[in-house]
Amino acid sequence: MTNTRPVADSELAARHRSYVRGRTAVALLGWVPLLVLYLFSHTRYLRPYVPESKGLAVVVLIVIPLAWLLGTAWTYRRLGPSMHGLLCTGCGARLVDDAFKSAAATGRCAACAAELVSPEPSPDGSP
Ligand SMILES: [Zn+2]
Predict the structure, then answer these.
(1) Neighbours of ion ligand 1 (CB under 5 A)
(2) pLDDT at position 39 over 90
(3) Residue 47 above 80 pLDDT?
(4) How many C-beta neighbours within 10 Å does residue 81 have?
(5) Which residue of 13, 31, 53, 111 has the fewest CB atoms within a 10 Å radius of its CB?
(6) In angstroms, what is the span from residue 1 Cα to ligand 1's centroid?
(7) Kindly report the CA angle at 99 between 66 and 115, in degrees rounded to 5?
(8) How far is the CA of 113 from the centre of ligand 1 (A)?
(9) What ranges in 7-126 are assigned the alpha helix state H?
């Protein structure tokens, strides 16, 4: 894990920007199948593949794409903060959105008050 000690203010902000960019990409990835299926189901290209049974059609056109959307969003919410080094060093809380704003403003975790932001970056790795 990269996030094992306090980091510079700018580094924390850069990590959060990177996390937000990733979230946008995941949102697009989540919505695209739903939109594509919606468009295709209203054209002749997908009509032959839509099941005759209404229940099965609902599953194929709505349940599966929605499960994909919610699944990708949930997965990124769970894994994104650790991928971008946005976990509290003290308690492991996810430092995104309000928790990030609080950490950026105070330099400490809102949940456990662990020091997260160091006043000076230490490029040689010493504290
Ligand atoms: Zn904490």
Answers:
(1) 88, 90-91, 93, 109, 111-112, 114
(2) no
(3) no
(4) 23
(5) 53
(6) 15
(7) 140
(8) 6
(9) 9-41, 54-58, 64-83, 98-106
Alpha helix segments (H runs only) across 42-63: 54-58
On whether the CB atoms of residues 1 and 85 are closer than 8 A, the answer is yes
pLDDT band at 4 (very low <50, low <70, confident <90, very high): low
Average pLDDT, the chain: 87
In sequence order, the 6+-apart residues with CB closer than 8 A to the CB of 74 are none
User: Which residue type does 16 have?
Assistant: H
Q: pLDDT, tens digit, for every residue of 66-101?
A: 999 999 999 999 999 999 999 999 999 999 999 999
Query: What's the 26 CA to ligand 1 centre distance in angstroms?
Result: 26
Ligand 1 center to residue 100 CA distance, Å?
Answer: 11
Residue 61 and residue 75 in contact, taking contact as beta carbons nearer than 8 Å: no
The answer to whether the predicted template modeling score (pTM) of the entire model surpasses 0.85 is no
Q: What is the pLDDT of residues 11-37, one digit of tens each?
A: 999 999 999 999 999 999 999 988 888
Domains of the chain by residue range: 7-86
